[in-house]
């Protein structure tokens, strides 16, 4: 194809795009948020967008108009069942996915299918789209190791299960014309464990202008965490690090998000003697989240399994310095000593020392970090992400946006 990426007011033909995944709003996680922002941004640009996702409540298949990211779109909700080891995750019925995918594709007749997960819905859509000659794009947000905490595998069986998951991923993503993932490190990771090559690194992106940095001197010390409250996030390390800080700093902790680890973390805060300074907000409304991003002094991300971390980008767009684990993709957002500090996973003393460094900085020193966060996150504006996916949908070669500070690649 030779069409240019569609922009509002351009003459390029709008596309009919079908986005499918195993998680989508109202689910709260990085993959669901990316799919919502992508779908909403494409609708805003004039494309016809359909979404296929599990129904978040019991009931039969249903097609309805839903609003996500302020945009109305057609969402095909499939009958789903709870994965009971997980606190909220639901999957479409795997033994019906081929039939449902075929039905929806024949009804919608999309120009392109973009799947966000290979597990159930992506697998069905990719197979049926390939049979019909429909262009397929696949994006990976999945790490098998993360799924294991909600799967009763142990010992050698766990290793075999992870290997089987990677093989399944390779088969499904192998049906796609192009494969993407949020960062270059995540792309290298996917290529390493599958036979895929030429994986694009394309940032999930965010609406940078939606965030409000506070550049005036602070009058309190607040460390913020935003995300799923689950084991791989290692939030316990943040609480232990805060407990080791000088009491005169009066550091407050704000945790926005929920998950199966919350009761254990609440107990830990009591055991550490800091429960009166730790606030668990749960799933908070958007206006509350934005206020806390503006209010906080520093954002903490102790997770060791981030393929990108939209939450960290949101913090950076709010002008926050970041203290995070030196693991997976975080070093590409956190430039040590420039917009925050990295610590080695599990090093509680190192974590505490870096938090202390920020809380004891002068206002002028803190401003340097805040301004650098704003500068780094500019590369992750959602419009660059949308431009790139539009080009991929049309079959055009693209320059991957700078997703992680390592430059761009043409495919």
UniProtKB/TrEMBL annotation:
Annotated Glycosyltransferase subfamily 4-like N-terminal domain residues: 28-208
An example Gene Ontology biological process: carbohydrate derivative biosynthetic process
Keywords, sorted A to Z: Glycosyltransferase, Transferase
InterPro entries xrefs: Glyco_trans_1, Glyco_trans_4-like_N, Glycosyltransferase_grp1
Domain of life: Bacteria
Claim: Nucleotide-binding is one of the keywords in the record: no
One MF annotation (Gene Ontology) recorded for this entry: glycosyltransferase activity
Glycosyl transferase family domain: residues covered: 217-362
Transferase found in the keyword field: yes
Pfam annotation, one family: Glyco_transf_4
Protein name: D-inositol 3-phosphate glycosyltransferase
């Amino acid at each position: 194809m030779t069409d240019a990426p569609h922009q509002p007011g351009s003459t390029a033909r709008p596309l009919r795009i079908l986005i499918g995944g195993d998680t989508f709003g109202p689910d709260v996680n990085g993959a669901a948020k990316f799919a919502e922002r992508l779908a909403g941004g494409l609708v805003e640009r004039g494309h016809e967008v359909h979404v296929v996702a599990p129904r978040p409540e019991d009931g039969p298949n249903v097609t309805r108009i839903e609003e996500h990211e302020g945009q109305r779109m057609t969402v095909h909700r499939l009958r789903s069942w709870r994965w009971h080891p997980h606190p909220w995750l639901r999957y479409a019925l795997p033994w019906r996915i081929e039939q449902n995918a075929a039905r929806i594709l024949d009804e919608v007749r999309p120009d392109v299918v973009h799947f966000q997960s290979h597990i159930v819905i992506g697998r069905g859509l990719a197979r049926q789209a390939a049979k019909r000659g429909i262009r397929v794009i696949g994006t990976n947000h999945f790490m098998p190791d993360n799924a294991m905490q909600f799967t009763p595998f142990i010992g050698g069986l766990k290793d075999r299960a992870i290997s089987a998951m990677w093989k399944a991923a390779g088969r499904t993503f192998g049906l796609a014309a192009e494969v993407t993932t949020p960062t270059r490190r995540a792309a290298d990771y996917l290529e390493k464990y599958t036979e895929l090559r030429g994986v694009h690194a394309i940032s999930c992106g965010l609406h940078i202008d939606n965030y409000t940095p506070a550049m005036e001197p602070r009058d309190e010390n607040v460390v913020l965490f935003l995300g799923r409250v689950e084991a791989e996030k290692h939030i316990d390390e943040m609480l232990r690090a805060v407990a080791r800080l000088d009491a005169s700093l009066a550091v407050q902790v704000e945790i926005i998000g929920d998950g199966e680890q919350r009761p254990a973390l609440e107990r830990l805060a009591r055991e550490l003697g800091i429960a009166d300074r730790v606030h668990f907000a749960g799933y908070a409304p958007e206006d509350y989240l934005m206020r806390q991003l503006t209010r906080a002094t520093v954002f903490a991300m102790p997770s060791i399994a981030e393929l990108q971390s939209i939450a960290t980008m949101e913090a950076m767009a709010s002008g926050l310095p970041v203290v995070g684990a030196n693991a997976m993709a975080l070093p590409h957002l956190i430039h040590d000593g420039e917009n925050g500090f990295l610590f080695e996973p599990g090093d509680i003393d190192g974590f505490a020392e870096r938090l202390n460094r920020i809380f004891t900085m002068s206002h002028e020193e803190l401003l340097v970090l805040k301004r650098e966060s704003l500068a780094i996150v500019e590369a992750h504006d959602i419009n660059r992400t949308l431009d790139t996916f539009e080009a991929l949908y049309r079959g055009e070669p693209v320059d991957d946006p700078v997703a992680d500070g390592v430059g761009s690649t043409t495919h």
